[in-house]
Amino acid sequence: MLALLIRLVNQTACKQDNEVSQRKGVQTLAFSFGFLPDTKGENTVPRVMIKRTTREGNDRMIPNVTQANAASHFINGQLPHLLYVTKQECGIHKVDRPMHQHTNICELLLVYQGYGTYFVGNRAFQISPGDILFYNAGDLHEVRSDFQTEIGTFCFGLTDLRLHGLTENHILPADRVYACASGVKYKALLSLCTMIFEQLTDGRPNSDFLIQMLTASFVLIAKELSTAQVGIVPTGKNYDLAARIKSYIDTHYAEELTLAKISEELHISPYYAAHVFKDAMGNSPIQYMIRRRIGEAQTLLINSEYSATQISTMVGYDNTNYFCTLFSKMVGLSPIRYRNNYHEKMCGQRTQ
User: Fold this and answer.
1) CA–CA dist 176, 247 (Å, integer)
2) What is the pTM of this model?
């Protein structure tokens, strides 16, 4: 077996918590990669092994990755492709990213600082440092800070993810909790995320394979942490109605929508629609429609060269000045400044 051993001094993770660093000292992570023979005897099936060593000399094998081979987790042994990584710095003035979705991309996030709420589909999860957030392709989602400053996260955009028993580019089944604590594995995961980010940022030669293997390791560890947790989807007559209203807005947000039109289409009174929706979702139907429009506008700004005027029309606004005013008020930046700011922080392909 051909093996490549890489050692990473976990200085970055220690900087995140000086008190812990002084008490526990520097740790090291050993990532071992290689190939196992397939059924034809050829060395084509990747193998991943991770070992953590503390300052005191204690070795700890990371569960579910040790001696695992890709074929037992990924269909045909094909590893996912990392499209982009962003590192959101905590403490700076927050730039909102309202409800949005990615058609063929799933995301994994590691929260390293800050507190907030993760909205995905019709559910909400409170998040804090050490939490892992999961997003399946096609699901509407949003991470919202509890304060006026950003939540510190590493965000990984993946495609070609094919896990046994799941739809392509889905990390978890629909009944799972989409946010879970990493617990004792947090330091190891923070080091893993830091290494992937640095490899992609530095553009080191021949690093594509290494990045792919490290990313696969992150996926497997995160998936293992979520396995035992099952989410509870809210139910009830009022919640079901709120979900119908939300679904209608998600489908027609770029059209000319009013509360009266939404209510007419769903055969309910405007007052009842507004009351039920706000009680279940936390804001009014029209406020939600605006957030959907701005979220879609952000995606178009990231993915395309469309002008602010073109994007304004695409998301449902005829008046560009009004669109730019709404965008700046909600996001904290003008549309073009947002585009430039996001691209400066993104590593990898310009796509979402």
Assistant:
1) 21
2) 0.73
Rounded to whole angstroms, how far apart are CA atoms 208 and 199?
A: 9
Q: Which of 63, 88, 91, 44 is nearest to 188 (CA)?
A: 63
User: What tokens does 254 get?
Assistant: 């770029």
Task: Quote the tokens at residue 150.
Answer: 């950003």
The per-residue pLDDT string of the chain (352 residues; one tens digit each, 9 = 90 and over) reads 223 333 333 333 344 444 333 434 444 455 554 444 445 554 444 444 555 444 444 444 443 343 346 778 899 889 999 999 999 888 778 888 999 999 899 999 999 999 999 998 888 888 999 999 999 999 999 998 888 888 999 999 999 999 999 999 999 988 788 899 999 999 999 999 999 998 888 877 778 888 998 999 999 999 888 864 544 556 567 888 999 999 999 999 999 999 999 999 999 999 999 999 999 888 899 999 999 999 999 999 998 999 999 999 999 999 999 999 999 999 999 999 999 988 887 776 666 6
Return the H-helix or E-strand segment holding 5: strand 3-9
Distance CA(153)–CA(167), nearest Å, equals 26
